[in-house]
Amino acid sequence: MRRVSRGGGRPLAACVLATSLGLVAAACARAVGTSSATAGASAVATVTTSVTSTPAPSPPSSRTPSPVPSPVDPGSLPQTKVLPSDATRAFRSRMADLWRGIVTDSVTAAMPAFFPRSAYVQVKAISHPAADFRDRLVSAFRRDIHAAHELLGPGAATALLVGVSVPKEWAWIPPGGCYNAIGYWHAPGSRLVYEEAGHVRSFGIFSFISWRGEWYVVHMSGYDHPGTVDDPSAGRGTLGPPGGC
After folding, report:
1. Within a domain: residue 79?
2. The model scores a pTM over 0.90
3. Contact predicate 42/50, CB 8 Å
4. Number of domains observed in the structure of the chain
């Protein structure tokens, strides 16, 4: 029987060992590579999740809204020579206020249609114009509103305003006339037309005067007949004659 030399077997054993170590190293490399790839995928997933997450809503603003500016008192501004019109939205709005005051017997509701106090103080060349405005003009206007309300009778709440017509016979009243320091347009004999219980009726507005291109009531009835209704009639009535100031 032939004997195998021990010296010749050592290279074979080394080769087997090297091969085994090589297989282990490859397996380890594959494991490490797989682990690294898994960790990398996890990192990418984490980043992706972070990017696509919904941001938290911002807290509500605590700023206070800016206040709405109040309308400018027209009487605090200078007069103009602009001729007013009875066809403007502003005029119709004031006449609606006048009608509301008549229907409810409230001079307060009707005051937006009345000549502004601050403008009257500028216009009149008399002593104590503010007191004259309060004690004479507004007092007479209150009585005129009540008289018109009484004219409507029990049907006042259902009466409807048709419109207010201003005649073309207006005139510019220059400074110095009628105790005035400032001029204005004057329109006498206008008509307020309304409908009540299916019938059209009307009465007069004795005097409109202007301020900055707008008509305002200054006398509903004749200035020397406060507390009366000027020329009430069936139908639309007749516009009054020119004149006055």
Report:
1. yes
2. no
3. no
4. 1
